[in-house]
Amino acid sequence: MTKRPLSPIPNSVHKRQANGSSESSEYIAATTATWYTIGQCALTFELDHLALRAFEASLRHTPDHVDSLRCLSKVLRTTHQQQSVDVLASSFQKFPHLNNEPSLWKELAEAHISLKQYDQGHQAISRALQLRMNDPECLLIAGRCLEHLNPQHAQHTYQSILSMITQPTTHLELEIVRECHYKLGLLAAASSDWKTATYELQTAISIALQINAETELMWCTLASIRERAGDIESALQVCRDALQVVGLQRRISVMAGYLAITPNKASQTDPEYAISILSPIVMTEKNDELDCLAWYLLGKAHSLNNNPRQAYDAFQCALKKGKTSPLPWLAVGTLYLKMGQLPDSLAAYSQAASLMVDDGSMTSAIASAAAWDGLACVYERCDDQAIDAADAYARAASCYRAADDLRAATQAEQRSHSLHAAARGEAPVPALRPVPETSPILLRDTVLNVIQAEQLKPLVPQEPQPQGKQFHHLPLPKGSLATAPASRSPTEKGTPQWRPHAPLHVSPSQMSQQPPIPQQQLSTSQHHTPQQAQAQPHHPQQHPPQQPPQHTQHPHPQQQHQQQPPPAQYPLPMPQHMQPMVQQQQPMHYYAPPANVVWR
């Protein structure tokens, strides 16, 4: 019996398998393209969480899809996450052919830049330039990296791009040219070349194709350059022109309000214009740093306009919206100090000092110095507080030196030595200093930082970061700013230091133990310590009860445990000259915006 030969597989079977394989690949390709299109639509409507899920679904079907990888990293980059780098790095390892895709290397470079990893970003964009020589987009990203590595090379890179695109025709080329002029303006401003910076910024604004956040930032930067050059009138005119072009936008309005309350060459301000331009902005109730800054500037404008009640209301709103910002607390401390309410002023300045963060910036150092300077002025106006005031001036001097303000540091050190000599009876008590105002440099830097941070704000909430170290240079001591008990100087004997009211001895420990005094318990003729105000009226014949010692001497003052100031009380105590309120409180009156400004 012979074996029957095996019959070959019919051709129809091979055709069905080939058709099934092709249909499966077509399904995968179509599904991948569909999810990618859904992600693009979500990005158009700024629905980043939906776009993230769509691009991830696209990569589940085709893990090496170039466009989906690039867009997924872009969405993660907007939240400043390390995953934007990890996604591309792992894809390069799994799929070696992706190493020849310049678009992925460009996206990897931008991801490194968003994480402030400029060396890695420059390496990634150099790889992209090897794959695509003299590409303007790649050169632009390289310039962004070189701004932090070598500014001179960055300037040369931007100029090379402009020489390549002499007559831009497409939308992309116009955007590249605009950004090159903007970056050249910033580099010129960093070297104090105000003329070149102004020209480059004006050119960048003239090329802007649409009104967006970047356009607002360019207008604000141009106004800041004019202001730093010393031409306040021209800077304010830039903001007026910007309001005519882009409408009543928040950041430009805040910049205009800040410039309006900044003294010009003739030491003149325009608080009424600041009130008229900031009043519509604060009514939007955004509850962010920019809104807090707008309320603060509005309070400063009312204060310059001699309206303490409106200033008080505006500062209170700023405190509620920016509880972590020291700027409103410094303003409230100054306001209470002008009113003669020393315990309330001390509480406000202490709160400002407790909010300082040692991030190494000049802004933090200046803010910390302002807080200690205000505390020193409060202690100077109290009895038996010469040593405490001298210690506060010494701390302010160390902060001024950290901010490279040697002149202010020297003045604070001299004031500290004079007060120490007066406490020992070796010299007369120096005359009281005027009430300190907010540093112009601190206010300018804060305005610019908030305006720029508004554009760089992440779109997805981040995990809470650990709180940084507090910027005090020396720890807040327990109960007093001095490490030794205060002693009354012979030259201070019989001289009332609490102005403009009657003499009153208040120790630092008494001030720091209680919250600000409720104004309903104060009168215009008698004033008490925080404990006495809550217990019983003060009688001139009676002496205040002796307080037990609040702390023991420590051999190393720097190792003492820090004591936080009293918590903020909302609403804040009303200034004394406004009490009692006989009539019902009237709402704040705002000036109407100019007729030629259109809200958009």
UniProtKB/TrEMBL annotation:
InterPro entries according to UniProt: TPR-like_helical_dom_sf, TPR_rpt
Organism: Cyberlindnera fabianii
Keywords carried by this UniProt record: TPR repeat
Entry's Gene Ontology cellular component terms: anaphase-promoting complex
The name this protein goes by in its record: CYFA0S06e04082g1_1
PROSITE patterns assigned to the protein according to its UniProt record, in alphabetical order: TPR (PS50005)
Signal peptide residues on this chain, from the entry's feature table: none
Positions with biased composition (Low complexity): 507-539, 549-563
Keyword hit for Plastid: no
Domain of life: Eukaryota
Start and stop residues of the TPR repeats: 102-135
Biased composition (Pro residues): 564-574
Region Disordered, residue ranges: 1-23, 460-575
Record keyword Aminoacyl-tRNA synthetase present: no
Protein family per UniProt: Belongs to the APC3/CDC27 family.
